[in-house]
Every structure is written in structure tokens, then in C-alpha cells.
Design a protein that fits this description.
The complex is a heterotrimer of chains A (486), B (103) and C (145). With 103 residues, chain B is mainly alpha-helical. Chain B has three helices and no strands. Chain C has two domains: 45 residues; 79 residues. Chain C has seven helices and no strands. The longest helix of chain C is centred in the first third of the chain and has 29 residues. Classes of the chains: A mainly alpha (486), B mainly alpha (103), C mainly alpha (145).
Chain lengths: 486, 103, 145
């Protein structure tokens, strides 16, 4: 029996994860033992945890290390992604503060689960081994199953949670089965060892390809790529709106990062395996763009419409894997950040436009919003235009970069389909804007004053969209550097 | 006849397909979960068989199997809780009847 | 392992295909074929619960108290965590000589987190058999009155 290798423990490298985990446990205990704790205190505690984790991640720039017997990789890319996740989590906490006041669900537990799901995302971004990757994906999924069902009085919420759970567990099972084959063929679960093994040996075993294909199917479920997208509209519609935003933004981001970690293995770009799966993703991307945009055209419910729009964005984003070059990866990271801001912003407007028992759910409910709530209407227009890809928003820059990477890799067909479906998508995004500005309201919605937390969330997302659109250079530079280091 | 890697793989892929078959055909939420557990256990069998029969494997396969068992338990716990909550709302766990969303 | 195995990839794909087909056939055989051949002649004895003349007392589909499920869930979670503790205990002595107390503290942290979970269940009252207590109270009330 070989002697057990003692892992080098470098806790400073996982400081953001540790801080977030501690914050979650502290909030759980405070919620348990302090009688009648104010919701604002829980929100503040969560925000403090997130901000601390954000800055501790910031101190890790420049580190490029493997730790904990190669389970964890800490490179610049993981730091950038961690920070994007943490910003997203802070926005969701702000939105939830407002939303939970409206629906009175157990707020402490809700925030704890939200922080744990963020922790899972951070683990995914720092994983160098299929074990940590799988743990992260599962942590994200399981917490989101529970959060989806948090509105206990709503039938939709329970139904959405059951559907999400069954399909999510099914896809996890596929993932594990695929990982088992990868382990069998490569004899290790470490992504870096797998990468170097593949680059040396050219293993073309069909079982290995089967393993990677099953892994792709599992992750495809999580990010709702086209043949595996059926759960998304129902879950998005039924989940509490802040959680819908977090599934659309955070969970999708996490799934893509997992894909990056698995399929952008160093040194295998020239491996024949890469060609096989690039072809697979080519079809998935094409199908996702077409189905997502076509589905969004006919939706009447705003959350379902945004769900299909998010599926379509999954298609654009997976284009980066097809082009399979540095530019594609950089564009992917940039667009993920932009996508996070605009999606969270759009859902924040959906929350702000409604009130208890009277949510504006249908697109026609948004008629006349501009007259009654000009600020909200302006915000919604900004986010929708960014989702559609109008300059000078973040969505425009991201799309140009992504399509550019596909053209650079000479996938002209895919780029053309991307551009055409983007043009189609203007129809359904602009329809909402037309409703808000040109139609008179059919039904009177009583106004609920904007709370501080929601205003903060809205304006921060709007700021993100505008800054990334007008001055994209800062983030571009950070991303370009981090990908080169990789 | 000694049991080798091939035997384990055949059993495991049969379990996998049975699991997929159950998930596809059963309409009862709990039974679907049972099918999912079958797939997870098929994967575990694979992991451990590879670790046992192939030379030069690192121990990560067995460790992975441990984590899969834990996560399967966590998933099952959450699933049972959600199914209980669903049952209180819909008075059924039949997936065809739990469908109230407009498409 | 070498390049030649990669060149003959299509042939290996056929092997995988046969593998897959064999597995599908195995499942299909076991599910479908017995259905064709087995005689279906149910009678009262065969449909009874134990098929051996044992008469069941009451139906099996009684309602279980919902507390059983919650306790089962809690048990499941804490039970499975033993999987982490046993391997740790097996190598504890060997690792202790190399790493010292670090080995202890690692498991300590893990168990503390589990303890937080236990505390959560406890404070929320899921470890107590609330419903039975209520019933007992009701019974004693009716008895005294």
C-alpha cells in the first residue's frame, strides 16, 4: 500500500470560500438563537460576508497555484470569476431583502441557502479536479432546488421545485456516470493530469468520448442547452423572482465555468477529442440559439420570456467553446459578467413593478408602466436593450466579441446564425418596451414605493451594464491577462 | 470464473439503462427518484471497479464514490422534503397531475 | 494507449456500440420476455399479501405519521456522514505521527459543522415527537374529565 500523501494546506488560497462559509454558518446560528432578529441585520451580515470575501479574493490576484493535493487551482481567472459571482450574490441579497418582506418567508434560512449556493459557485471556479467540480455543481443545485420551492403557499413554486429537482438530479447522475468513464480511461480525476495525459497519449477510446459526452449532457442540463432546456421555462416561472434571477445568472454562469474547467483543458486543443466535442457543441449552440429565440417570441409571461431569452443566451455563450481559442474564452468571461448584470437587473424590475398579490406577470401587464413608474420603465428598457445587444450597453460589446471569436475561428455559419437570431430577438425585447411606452394600461396596478435595497440593486446593475458598455477596457484588460496566465 | 472488470461494467451499464428506463416511464415522483439512485449507484460501481481492476489508478476513484454516496443521500433528503411539501399542496405525487403552468 | 489505437477508432466505436446494444438487449430481455411467456392466472390466494396462507391483519396502506418522514430525513443525513469518519479513523494513528493535531482538528471542524446542523434540528423542534405528546395530553384530559 502506498503511503498517503499529505496535502499541503494553504488556507489563504481558499480565503473567499472560507469567509463565505463562515458567514453562512454565523447567520444560521444568529437566526436560531437570537429571538426576533430583524431582517435588515441578516441582510447586513450577509452583505458583510460577501464584501469581505470579495476583497479577500482581490488579494489573491497574481497567485497561480495548485493546492490541497491538486484539488483546488487558484489562478487569475478563478479570482475574476469569484468576484463576478460575489457581486451577483450581493445584488440578489438586496433584491431578496425587498421580496421577502412582501411574502414573509423564513428569511434567515433563505439567506443561508443563498450563501451556500454562492459558495458552490466559488468552488466550481477554483476546482482543478472532477471531485471538487462535482461537489460545487451539486452544492449549487441542491440549494437552488430548496430555494425554488421557498414560496410554500404558491402552487407554482412547489411544482417548479419538483421539476427542477427531478431533472437536476437526473442530469447529476449522468454527470457522475460520465466522470466514472473518464476516470476509468485516464485513471485519475484530476483535470490537469487528464489534460497532460490526453496531450501525450492521444487516447481515442470510445469509452472516454462517451464519458465526456455524458458529462457534457449533464452540464448541458444545468445551463439549459437546447435539447436539455425543457425544465427552464417552468422553473423560471415558478421560482421566487430573486431566485429566478439567481438561477438565470449565477447558476448558468457556474455551469459555463464548469464547462471551461473541463473542456478548456490545457494542451488538448490539437487533440482529436477536441474536434469531436467541438462538433457536438456546434450543434447544441445552433439549436439553442434557434429554439431559445423562437420560444421567446410566443411567450406571454414575462418570466417565461426572460427564461427563453436566457436559453438563447446560453446558445450565444456556448459559441465560445466552438471557436475554442483564447479570444473565445475571453469573450465568454466578459459576456458572462455583462449577462449577469442585465439579467439580474431585468428581474429586479419585474419585482419592483409588482406588489404583494399583484405581480406584473404577463407582458401586457407592463402596458403604461412608463407613465406610472418612469424610472422603472427606463431601467427595464436599458436591461432589455442590453440583452438584445444594442450599443452602448454591455450586451453589445459582449456579442461583438463573441461573434468575432467565432469568425476568427472560421465558423462563419454559426456566427451568421447568431447575428440573425439576435436580429429576431429585437422583436420580443422591443415588444415589452413598446408596451411600456406606447400602450395604455389595461388594469390599474397600485404602486408600491421603491425600497432602498431594491433601488440599490437596480442602480448597481444598471451601472454595471453601462460601465461595461461604455468603458469595457478595465474588465477586458483583467480578463485578457487572466486568460493568458492560464 | 473470476469476476473481472468487464462483468462489473456490464452490470453497471445495465443498472444505468434500467435507471434511465425507470426515469422515462414512471410517473410517480418517488419512483423517478429511485431510478436516479440506480444511475448513481451504477456510476459508483464503475468507479470502484476501475479503481480495483485497473493498474496505476490513483485512489481518487474510491474517494469520488464516497462523495457520490453522500451527495445522493443529501439529494434524497431534499427530494423527500420537497415531495412531502408537494403532497400537502397537490395531494398527489403523480407528475402528470402536477402541472399547473400555462405554456 | 498508442497512436495506432487512435487510428482504429471507428473499429473501437463498433465495439462500444455492441457493448451498448448488448446492455439494452439485456434490459429489454429481462423486462419484456418474461411478460410474453409467463402465464397470468391470478386467483385470490395469489393476490393475497403473503401468498402463503398467512392472513394479514389490516391493509398495508395505512397512513404513517408525517413525523416519521422528517425523522427519516434527519437520520439519513447524519447516518451517511459516518462514511467520512470511518476512513479518517482508520488512518488516524498513522497520520497523527506525521501531522500531529492537525488531523484531529480537521475532523473537529467537520463535526462542528454537523453539530450546527443538529442544533438547527433541535431548536426547530424536529427531534421531539410533538404530535404524540399532544395526543397524550388530549388523552389525559379526556381521562380526567
Amino acid at each position: 500500500m502506498t503511503s498517503i500523501q499529505i496535502p499541503e494546506l494553504s488556507f489563504s488560497l481558499i480565503a473567499p470560500e472560507l469567509i463565505l462559509c463562515t458567514a453562512a454558518i454565523v447567520i444560521l446560528l444568529v437566526d436560531l438563537y437570537v429571538k426576533n432578529v430583524e431582517r435588515i441585520n441578516i441582510t447586513l451580515l450577509a452583505l458583510i460576508g460577501i464584501v469581505l470575501a470579495f476583497f479577500s479574493a482581490g488579494t489573491l490576484y497574481g497567485a497561480s497555484e495548485l493546492a490541497f493535493s491538486w484539488l483546488i487551482i487558484r489562478d487569475d481567472m478563478s479570482v475574476v470569476i469569484d468576484q463576478i459571482f460575489l457581486i451577483g450574490a450581493a445584488l440578489i441579497v438586496l433584491m431578496s431583502h425587498h421580496y421577502s418582506e412582501r411574502y414573509h418567508f423564513p428569511y434567515g434560512e433563505y439567506i443561508v441557502l443563498l450563501l451556500f449556493s454562492t459558495l458552490g459557485m466559488l468552488i466550481i471556479s477554483a476546482s482543478a479536479d472532477l471531485i471538487t467540480l462535482f461537489l460545487g455543481v451539486e452544492l449549487v443545485s441542491i440549494t437552488l432546488f430548496v430555494l425554488t420551492g421557498f414560496e410554500k403557499k404558491s402552487l407554482l413554486s412547489g411544482e417548479a421545485s419538483l421539476k427542477y429537482l427531478l431533472l437536476g438530479a437526473f442530469s447529476s447522475a449522468f454527470m457522475v456516470y460520465g466522470i466514472a468513464f473518464i476516470f476509468g480511461m485516464c485513471r485519475t480525476t484530476n483535470l490537469i493530469s487528464i489534460g497532460s495525459l490526453l496531450s501525450e497519449d492521444f487516447i481515442g477510446s470510445p469509452l472516454l468520448i462517451l464519458g465526456f459526452a455524458l458529462l457534457l449532457v449533464g452540464l448541458g442540463f444545468k445551463i439549459a442547452l437546447a435539447p436539455f432546456h425543457m425544465w427552464a421555462p417552468d422553473v423560471y416561472q415558478g421560482a421566487p423572482t430573486p431566485i429566478t434571477a439567481w438561477i438565470a445568472a449565477g447558476s448558468k454562469l457556474a455551469g459555463f465555468i464548469a464547462l471551461v474547467r473541463v473542456f478548456s483543458l490545457p494542451d488538448i486543443s490539437f487533440h482529436p477529442l477536441a474536434r469531436t466535442w467541438v462538433e457536438g457543441i456546434w450543434w447544441l449552440s445552433l439549436l439553442t440559439m434557434i429554439i431559445g429565440n423562437a420560444g421567446a417570441l410566443v411567450q406571454k409571461d414575462i418570466k417565461r420570456m426572460l427564461a427563453y431569452s436566457s436559453i438563447a443566451h446560453g446558445g450565444y455563450l456556448s459559441m465560445a467553446f466552438v471557436s475554442h481559442n483564447d479570444v473565445g474564452l475571453q469573450a465568454l468571461l466578459f459576456y458572462l459578467a455583462a449577462y449577469l448584470f442585465m439579467t439580474i437587473g431585468a428581474f429586479a424590475v419585474v419585482i419592483a413593478a409588482g406588489r404583494h398579490g399583484e405581480e406584473r406577470r404577463r407582458i401586457s401587464d407592463f402596458a403604461g408602466l412608463a407613465k406610472r413608474r418612469p424610472f422603472l420603465a427606463a431601467m427595464m428598457s436599458l436591461f432589455l436593450l442590453s440583452l438584445a445587444g444594442m450599443p452602448p450597453t454591455a450586451g453589445f460589446i459582449g456579442k461583438v466579441w463573441l461573434f468575432g471569436s467565432a469568425i476568427q475561428a472560421q465558423y462563419y455559419g454559426l456566427a451568421i446564425v447568431g447575428i440573425l437570431t439576435t436580429l429576431f430577438s429585437f422583436y420580443y425585447y422591443l415588444r415589452v418596451i413598446v408596451y411600456m411606452y406606447m400602450r395604455d394600461e389595461e388594469k390599474e396596478f397600485e404602486a408600491e414605493p421603491l425600497s432602498v435595497s431594491l433601488t440599490l440593486a437596480l442602480s448597481l446593475s444598471a451601472l454595471g451594464v453601462l460601465i461595461l458598455g461604455v468603458f469595457p477596457n478595465t474588465l477586458m484588460k483583467v480578463i485578457t491577462n487572466s486568460v493568458i496566465v492560464l | 470464473m473470476a469476476v473481472g472488470l468487464e462483468h462489473c461494467l456490464v452490470v453497471s451499464i445495465s443498472l444505468f439503462l434500467l435507471g434511465v428506463f425507470i426515469v422515462m416511464t414512471q410517473r410517480n415522483g418517488i419512483r423517478v427518484l429511485m431510478g436516479i439512485e440506480l444511475i448513481l449507484n451504477a456510476a459508483n460501481l464503475n468507479l470502484i471497479a476501475f479503481n480495483r481492476f485497473l493498474p496505476n489508478t490513483d485512489v481518487n476513484g474510491s474517494i469520488f464514490a464516497v462523495f457520490v454516496i453522500i451527495l445522493a443521500a443529501a439529494e434524497a433528503a431534499v427530494a423527500l422534503a420537497i415531495v412531502l411539501a408537494i403532497y400537502q399542496q397537490f395531494s398527489t405525487v403523480n407528475l402528470d397531475e402536477i402541472s399547473s403552468m400555462k405554456h | 494507449m498508442d497512436t495506432s489505437s487512435f487510428i482504429s477508432m471507428p473499429a473501437q466505436f463498433i465495439a462500444a456500440l455492441i457493448f451498448l446494444l448488448a446492455a439494452i438487449a439485456f434490459v429489454a430481455f429481462n423486462v419484456l420476455v418474461p411478460r410474453l411467456f409467463r402465464p397470468i392466472r391470478p386467483d385470490q390466494e395469489k393476490l393475497s399479501n403473503y401468498e402463503c396462507g398467512e392472513r394479514p391483519i389490516g391493509g398495508p396502506w395505512i397512513r404513517f405519521n408525517i413525523r416519521f418522514y422528517i425523522i427519516a430525513i434527519i437520520f439519513l443525513i447524519f447516518d451517511v456522514e459516518v462514511l467520512f469518519i470511518i476512513p479518517w479513523a482508520v488512518v488516524y494513528r498513522r497520520l497523527y505521527s506525521e501531522l500531529g493535531m492537525l488531523v484531529f482538528w480537521e475532523m473537529f471542524v467537520f463535526l462542528t459543522v454537523l453539530g450546527v446542523g443538529l442544533a438547527y434540528c433541535w431548536v426547530k423542534g424536529h427531534l421531539e415527537w410533538v404530535f404524540r405528546d399532544k395526543l397524550a395530553e388530549d388523552k389525559s384530559k379526556t381521562l380526567s374529565s
